[in-house]
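job 3f2a | input accepted
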Amino acid sequence: MMKKIDLSISLFEYDSINELNDADRHLLEKAREAVQAAYAPYSEYYVGAAVLLENGEIYTGNNQENVAYPSGLCAERVAVFAAAANNPGIPVKAVAISARAGKFSVDNPVMPCGSCRQALAEYEMLYKNDIRVIMMGENGKVIVTESIRDILPLMFHAEELKKTR
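job 3f2a | predicted structure (165 res):
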């Protein structure tokens, strides 16, 4: 018998970066700084990310494009992979994302792509702790979630690979 299942998520929307608490604002500023070093000659869409670890360390990353498009990497994965590679066993506490474009103004909060959501979800599941996500465009509103589950409610879990017949 078919039944409809409704999902619900919670997001917090702020009118500007100035409404954030000090820690979130600082992390978002680091992401905005990382935008400046993005390598995006093809899309001209420059993204920066900053990852805060449980030990207080912050790692930044930015999108790195390649003429062979699948060979590039998004800012969020650059940042979280660098953080994990340099701090094995240290949980991710939060990630902030920002962007600017060469030909238009990015006025809406930048959301991670599906691959980045799943990559971040891996660390949330690994350490069994929520990862706060802070998203902003070039200017304007900021959206904050308390967990990757809020932006990827039907994520793929490692348990799916461990099933036996």
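job 3f2a | The first helix runs from residue 22 to 35.
job 3f2a | closed
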